[in-house]
Amino acid sequence: MAAKAPYPQFWRTVGMRPARRRPGVVADVDWPPGERPLRLVVVGKGGAGKSVIAGTMARLLARRGRRVLALDTDTMPGLAVSHGISAPATPPLVHAVDKADKGCWRLKRGVGPVRAVQRFSTVAPDGVRVLEVGDHPAIDAKSVTPSVQAFYQVIHGLPEARALQSWTMIGDHPAGPRQTVHDWAPYADTLLIVVEPTWKSALTARRLVEVARQREATMIVVANKVRAASDVDSLQQMVGETVAATVPADEAVAACDRLGTALIDHSPESPAVRAIDDLVEGLVRGTLAGVRTR
Amino acid sequence: MKIAVAGKGGSGKTTVSGTVARELARAGHSVLALDADTNPMLGISLGIGPEETYRMLAVRQGNDAMPEHEHTVEGMIDAFGTDAPDGVRLVIALREAHVDPG
């Protein structure tokens, strides 16, 4: 996805410059069949199941031998739970930045994307590395801004980080299209749009389809919480795009949400995990039907 | 009275807001429903239907040759609003112009 300013004063407002766009390092390599690292971001409406799908995919890919970097861009905790991190701590990304002028924060000298991943990511089960933007602290605590700005600068360095070129990257965006519009996944060439069979979710997906078109990103619409084949048909009508993968409605997901555990640890043999594994298989093999490549 | 509804994604903010707005209107109150979500879906829960909800979103994005700014509150309610059942007036209050996540 190209870094382009969503509005004229964008880069000045955020106090940063757009990442230089040389040909991506992933694209530079002739990967053997089935070994090309995936670069995804999971998007959709609140409650559609983004974190559960992103977290489970990351764990499954790691079990297949991939080196996986999961990027949690949500300031509300969620993805860490889906990865199986028991006590998600606010990561010390705040230590990665110095105060620059005009209220902006810059990465410290010597801290690039690779070092940031080494130092500031959390190791989840199966060896998944999770880099978190940081949680919104309680009202009386310090601002999350330095951590957010550090995170933004790190992710913009990821596309060109040669030491990470063979890594699979999976991002999880907060609800709605806002972050996706504002280039919070510069490492991703594919938008995984998660949608459940409701109009609210479908209209959000429709907006995200527009974003994917503008970004010239590959898009994959994933229908979640599906109870009948008719759900998929009506979702395709509502969204106006082909559904490439379906995940069934599964009581195990609700159960692990209540417990605050990762789905893959709680119910590894559940229908939802099996469906997500099928999705992973299709992505790795490049055999998923209904993928819109731009 | 002025009520704000907050919570995690998918927990039911919009459904609660829409239903409370309709019930208050039925009880005789004049109700202004403000959708301050950057992904505004309150129209669905108020009962204006998906296509009108999607059209309202386009209006607020300035895609439909609508004014970018209105200088008075009345003007905003007029330009960026629509009538929902039971006399509730729905106004889309935000557009995407901030870069913070969340």
What is the fold's blueprint, element by element?
The complex is a heterodimer of chains A (294) and B (102).
Chain A: H1 10-14, H2 25-28, E1 39-44, H3 50-63, E2 68-72, H4 79-83, E3 97-99, E4 105-107, H5 113-120, E5 122-123, E6 129-132, H6 145-157, E7 168-172, H7 178-181, E8 190-195, H8 199-215, E9 218-226, H9 229-239, E10 243-248, H10 251-259, H11 263-266, H12 271-285
Parallel strand pairs in A: 1-7, 1-8, 2-6, 2-7, 8-9, 9-10
Antiparallel strand pairs in A: 3-4, 5-6
Chain B: H1 13-26, E1 32-35, H2 42-46, H3 50-60, H4 73-79, E2 81-83, E3 89-92
Parallel strand pairs in B: 1-3
Antiparallel strand pairs in B: 2-3
Class per helix and strand makeup of chain B? alpha+beta
Helix content of chain B: 25-40%
Strand content of chain B: 5-15%
Q: Classify the fold: give the CATH topology of the domain at 34-91 and 167-285 in chain A.
A: Rossmann fold
Q: Round the mean pLDDT of chain B to the nearest integer and report it.
A: 83
Fold and architecture overview:
The complex is a heterodimer of chains A (294) and B (102). With 294 residues, chain A is of the alpha/beta class. Chain A has a domain at 34-91 and 167-285: P-loop containing nucleotide triphosphate hydrolases (Rossmann fold, 3-Layer(aba) Sandwich). Helix content of chain A is 37%, strand content 17%. Chain A contains twelve helices and ten strands. Chain A has helices at 10-14, 25-28, 50-63, 79-83, 113-120, 145-157, 178-181, 199-215, 229-239, 251-259, 263-266, 271-285; strands at residues 39-44, 68-72, 97-99, 105-107, 122-123, 129-132, 168-172, 190-195, 218-226, 243-248. In chain A, the strands form two sheets. Chain A has an eight-stranded mixed beta sheet, sandwiched between helices. In chain A, strands 3-4 form a two-stranded antiparallel sheet. In chain A, α3 (50-63) packs across α12 (271-285). The model of chain A has no long low-confidence stretch (mean pLDDT 85). Chain B has 102 residues and is of the alpha+beta class. Chain B has a domain at 33-92. A three-stranded mixed beta sheet of chain B has the order 1-3-2. In chain B, a hairpin with a 5-residue loop joins β2 and β3 (89-92). The longest helix of chain B is centred in the first third of the chain and has 14 residues, at 13-26. Residues 97-102 of chain B have low confidence and may be disordered. At the A-B interface, α1, α7 and α8 of A face α3 of B.
